[in-house]
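Slide 14.
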Amino acid sequence: MHGSGDVAHLVDRHPTVTPERLIAQLIPPPTFSDVSFDTYKPDPAEPTQSAAVQACRQFCEQAVARRAGKKKMFGRREVLPGVGIYLDGGFGVGKTHLLASSYFELPEPKAFATFGEMTQLAGVFGIVECI
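Slide 15: predicted structure.
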């Protein structure tokens, strides 16, 4: 309550968040701050886990190459469209570990976002601005 009987209403608030602030927060969770591809131990009984490690390593290589672009006339470079990776699997199989490892492998600029965080960004900024 404010003052003499005034009630604050949540709908009267209009918080703003800058894109830069939201993007700065797109980092791996603290639990995964020390992970790497080398610390991921795939289950030998699940060959898709080893394949996922290789796919993430390849994703990082492609991302770096595409960001470097291809040479054009007069020494200029054209940045190529980005690449993406989507990991699907049950709880506790290592998806976040591999995505965080990819994040740490890549040079700046970069961002780490869960599906929920991407949904939030799209809701705040709209899908076009989010991309």
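Speaker note: The two ends are 40 Å apart (CA to CA).
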